[in-house]
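quick one, 237 residues, struct below
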Amino acid sequence: MHVFEAIEEIESMPQVRAMDLYLDKLGKKVDGDDIRWTVREIYSINLDAVSELDAGKQVTSYPETIMEGVEESLSDEQIEGTIEEYIFSLSKVEVMDLYLESLEGTPTGAEARVLINDIFGVNLDGISSLEKAGISLFSKEQWIMQSEKDLFAVYTGVTDVDVYILPTEYFTEQTGLTTLPEALQERLKAIGYSYNEDVGGYYYAEPNGESVPDAFKGQTLGTLAGFIQEEYAELLQ
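---
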């Protein structure tokens, strides 16, 4: 099957399965450009732009497997200072490409998604699980998820150190509410959010200045998705 025929075939699939199929259909050892292009086509997320902005996860370390792979790819390079300092001076795209060069085979879609989360702080598995959940997500200076019937929008800063939540225009049009429902406000307060006048919504920032942990992001999105299903599922139809 030609690669563009594969793209047509996967348009109606869940994003995770679509990514797996597309990488499999390439029929060769994929490189960073292949994976980033796949992510852009399927998820509409530009990882190159994330890297150029130095957006996403605040990196103070990479997993040991990534560090070892990058170091292996750099073994013939003349490097001033320590290898760790040099690796942390690289862009996220460069780290990804060097790690992939160290692999003997092609990573599976699942392995590529873990790699992307570890380097860029973009959780593609989590994003795929929230398709049509009624939640927009603006992160890394671009829309990660967005559809016309989304009810709430989650915004994160460039380096993921803070997050805030607002109702969408569609939600306001359908309900007449210009703020988050009180019941949702209480649920968000229970996990650490508070009202912030500057953003006009519910806000959370990591107290240590590091990126908001994946577990907290998941808790936030799960809270929103659960509330939508309980109270506003009919608005998603």
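The two ends are 35 Å apart (CA to CA).
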